[in-house]
């Protein structure tokens, strides 16, 4: 859904956050589950599927390419795979909605099809850089036209003979790595991707689970074209990035003791846990086995005073979507927090450094932007005021957290896109103790 719908939140100090809660399924895994189950031979059931707009946009795209996908109940899908060469030409442009993940992964996957496709997105996605995938894909033989300046729409010319590539990516991006690996399924020879910093490895793990031969280790993946995928049931773990808002809120609000149940804790996602602990957070992790091949843990978070730190750059890629929430934590910590090496934040659903800096200042915090991060001066909570999320789900939810530490109300503008990653956030948060309602 595009931004600018006019839906706002009024968020204000609630009570301590207590009890247990389970957040919805992982967005990254949900996208990949639809894509790979669609390309598999046979029928796969997906449980824990994220009923968010991003994952549903990907689902709708595969339906339009001839894949039958049933919904036996909310959060579950039955995907009737068409096989690696079974997709059919859609009858018009494919809408990725707000999802960078959807569009970038599809760019690689569709480059290997015999038919042409056009990928479009909403206002936010239409501003995001796509050359990071189209340029390396062109080196494999793909023919993809972008809009002026390298942004969507993407016009993907089918029928290209792709050849494998051995490449070191310029940015640490699981989306870029995954686009290349998905094109590699259709390429002659081997595709090898090396990354400047390791990123989430869900594409690699799921390809392996569905029987495609692949070698991978942190920062490295290699596969060859010409194999097939076998259908398999997939269980999607709870999304760490959705849990993050509650982890930060429970750390900050005095008297809180909140348990987040069975959260996916893939090591490439949990940088925030390391960083919050360095700041003094009280988080107990109890392993709770595996879900869909991913480690899951119960996370018990108790309020603790936080102190500012220099965020170690080695954690940046492992917490890339958690910085808006971390900025709120840093603004409530004692002392100064410095974030560096996070320029990627400028090309997410919004420029997350600028939108967080503007919003935090609007509610009374002290923060300086730098080209690749920020310097955040901690204080004793916020004054309140009005902030704009610029249609960015993670910004909206981060300010709902900030409001729990605010003396006055916080009006958060343009919150409709929260449904892209976290449907039901408002009621789950209110149930846990947040002061939060639609305006
Ligand atoms: O591969 C994925 O599912 C994602 C990768 C990340 O983007 P980059 O890999 O571009 O940093 C992340 O920000 C996004 O929310 C989901
Ligand atoms: C950056 C994000 O997602 P995407 O790139 O898929 O739009 C996000 O969910 O924070």
From TrEMBL:
Predominant localisation class: cytoplasm
UniProtKB keywords: Amino-acid biosynthesis, Aromatic amino acid biosynthesis, Cytoplasm, Transferase
Amino-acid positions noted as binding 3-phosphoshikimate in the UniProt annotation, renumbered to this chain: 27-28, 32, 173, 175, 321, 348
Record-linked Pfam families: EPSP_synthase
The keyword Transferase is assigned to this record: yes
Xref: PROSITE patterns: EPSP_SYNTHASE_1, EPSP_SYNTHASE_2
InterPro entries: Enolpyruvate_Tfrase_dom, Enolpyruvate_Tfrase_sf, EPSP_synthase, EPSP_synthase_CS, RNA3'P_cycl/enolpyr_Trfase_a/b
Span of the signal peptide: none
Pathway(s) this gene product operates in, as recorded in its UniProt entry: Metabolic intermediate biosynthesis; chorismate biosynthesis; chorismate from D-erythrose 4-phosphate and phosphoenolpyruvate: step 6/7
Catalysed reaction equations from the record: 3-phosphoshikimate + phosphoenolpyruvate = 5-O-(1-carboxyvinyl)-3-phosphoshikimate + phosphate
GO MF assignments: 3-phosphoshikimate 1-carboxyvinyltransferase activity
Domain of life: Bacteria
Enzyme nomenclature, EC number: 2.5.1.19
Active site: 321
Subcellular location: Cytoplasm
Domain Enolpyruvate transferase stretches: 13-426
Residues holding phosphoenolpyruvate: 27, 100, 128, 175, 352, 394
Subunit structure: Monomer.
Record family assignment: Belongs to the EPSP synthase family.
PANTHER family xrefs: AROM/DEHYDROQUINATE SYNTHASE (PTHR21090), PENTAFUNCTIONAL AROM POLYPEPTIDE (PTHR21090:SF5)
Name listed for the protein in its UniProt record: 3-phosphoshikimate 1-carboxyvinyltransferase
Organism field: Luteimonas composti
Gene: aroA
């Amino acid at each position: 859904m595009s931004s600018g719908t006019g839906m706002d939140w009024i968020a204000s100090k609630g009570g301590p956050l207590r009890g247990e809660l389970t957040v919805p399924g992982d967005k990254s895994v949900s996208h990949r589950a639809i894509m790979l189950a669609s390309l598999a031979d046979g029928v796969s059931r997906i449980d824990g599927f994220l009923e968010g707009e991003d994952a549903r946009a990907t689902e709708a795209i595969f339906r339009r390419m001839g894949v039958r996908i049933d919904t036996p109940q909310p959060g579950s899908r039955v995907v009737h795979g068409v096989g690696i060469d079974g997709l059919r030409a859609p009858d018009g442009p494919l809408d990725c909605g707000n999802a960078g993940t959807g569009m970038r992964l599809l760019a690689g996957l569709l480059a290997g099809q015999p038919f042409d496709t056009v990928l479009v997105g909403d206002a936010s996605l239409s501003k995001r850089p796509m050359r990071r995938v189209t340029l390396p894909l062109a080196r494999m033989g793909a023919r993809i036209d972008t809009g002026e300046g390298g942004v969507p729409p993407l016009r993907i010319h089918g029928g290209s003979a792709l050849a494998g590539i051995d490449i070191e990516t310029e940015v640490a991006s699981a989306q870029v790595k995954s686009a290349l690996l998905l094109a590699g399924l259709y390429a002659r020879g081997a595709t090898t991707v090396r990354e400047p910093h390791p990123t989430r490895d869900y594409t690699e793990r799921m390809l392996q689970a569905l029987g495609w031969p692949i070698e991978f280790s942190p920062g490295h993946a290699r596969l060859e074209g010409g194999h097939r995928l076998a259908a398999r049931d997939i269980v999607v773990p709870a999304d760490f990035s959705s849990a993050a808002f509650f982890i930060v809120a429970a750390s900050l609000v005095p008297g809180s003791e909140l348990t987040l149940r069975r959260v996916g804790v893939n090591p490439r996602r949990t940088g925030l846990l390391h960083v919050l602990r360095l700041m003094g957070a009280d988080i107990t992790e109890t392993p709770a086995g595996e879900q869909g091949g991913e480690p899951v843990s119960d996370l018990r978070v108790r309020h603790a005073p936080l102190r500012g730190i220099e965020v170690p750059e080695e954690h940046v890629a492992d917490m890339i979507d958690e910085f808006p929430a971390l900025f709120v934590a840093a603004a409530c910590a004692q002392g100064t927090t410095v974030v560096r090496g996070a320029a990627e934040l400028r090309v997410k659903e919004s420029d997350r450094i600028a939108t967080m800096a503007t919003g935090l200042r609007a509610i009374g915090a002290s923060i300086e932007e730098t080209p690749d991060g920020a310097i955040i001066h901690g204080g004793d909570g916020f004054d309140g005021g009005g902030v704009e999320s610029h249609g960015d789900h993670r910004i909206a939810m981060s300010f709902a957290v900030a409001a729990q530490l605010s003396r006055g109300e916080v009006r958060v503008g343009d919150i409709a896109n929260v449904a892209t990653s976290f449907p039901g956030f408002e009621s789950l948060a209110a149930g846990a103790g947040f002061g939060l309602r639609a305006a």
